[in-house]
Amino acid sequence: MEVIIRKNAAEAVKLAAELIGKEIQTHPALTLGLATGRTMEALYAAIAAKNLDFTHVHTFNLDEYIGLAPENENSYRYYMNSNLFDHINIPKANTNLPNGMAADEKAEGARYEAAIRAVGGIDLQLLGIGRDGHIGFNEPGSSFGSRTRSKALTRETYEQNSPLFDDPKDMPMRAFTMGIGTILEAKRIVMLVTGTEKADIIAKAIEGPLSAMVSGSAIQLHPNVVVILDEEAAAKLTLKDYYQRVFEVEPEWKPYR
Ligand code: F6R
After folding, report:
1. What stretch of H or E contains 88?
2. Residue 75 falls within a domain, yes or no?
3. How far is the CA of 174 from the centre of ligand 1 (A)?
4. What's the CA-to-centroid distance between 92 and ligand 1, angstroms?
5. CB 58 less than 6 A from any atom of ligand 1
6. Ligand 1 geometric centre to CA of 39 (Å)
7. What local confidence, expressed as pLDDT, does residue 166 receive?
């Protein structure tokens, strides 16, 4: 795992956008796994500003609220269109999210997994982390082997996300999410985490024990992960100095120093 600490959120976002931009330039038919949330808004603006060619890119989002139609302003489909897809040249047919209105939830999970398999899997999966340690909406207690399925959201996730709804009571309490097993099959993972409120949980995820209580700790099992943090989010890490040293001496990071 590579952990890169930038001095502020803007610098962290800039680096994440550069890494993703480079992947798209090198592999024009890349399959990207995408996340939503506040952290990603600035990243999508930075990616859109790069004028990359997305004609052959496919995307799969991590999650979608159950019961929200694509036109609903709080759906993740709406978020993705307005924050990214409407600003780049990706064919909408290449963009995938779970269908929050699917009548048969088990079938929807299986359909999504099959769609990911059909394009040969996810090349680069973007992740954030929730205050309760979730990746996607894999709430505490999620199996590391879990696949795309419906999941009940925690009170903490409700507190984190409901302020984004006009009426907080409208936030669904369930969502479809890729499983942790699904996420770990991506060829590369880029996690972006910023802000003081994430300092405790990201330290647990990166440096704590592997535990279903902190879904994000599952990334320790993946052989190709880059975690990009700002100073605030990195505040509780034990190996901060070492991560900095790696960034300064490893040739791979030279272009970004
Ligand atoms: C959403 C997702 C979540 C978010 C997490 C952090 O698609 O995957 O795991 O990344 O809830 O959200 P923000 O960035 O709003 O703090």
Report:
1. none
2. yes
3. 15
4. 22
5. no
6. 7
7. 94
Is the distance from CB of 143 to CB of 180 less than 8 angstroms?
yes
Torsion of CA 50, 54, 59, 65, to 10 degrees: 60
**Tokens matching residue 79:** 């978020």
Q: 77: Cβ below 6 Å to ligand 1?
A: no
Name the DSSP class of 41.
H
Is any ligand 1 atom within 6 A of the Cβ of residue 135?
A: yes
pTM: predicted TM-score of the whole model, two decimal places: 0.98
Q: Would you state the pLDDT for residue 145?
A: 98
Distance CA 83, CA 73 (A): 12
Whole-number pLDDT of residue 156: 97
Query: Which ligand 1 atom is at minimum distance from the Cα of 37?
Result: 15
Q: Is 104 a catalytic residue?
A: no
Does a structural domain hold residue 101?
A: yes
Strand partners, 3: 227
Q: What is the pLDDT of residue 171?
A: 98
Domain of residue 82: give its range.
2-186+200-222
> Has residue 247 been placed in a domain?
no
Residue 68 lies in a domain: yes
Q: Which pLDDT does position 100 carry in this prediction?
A: 98
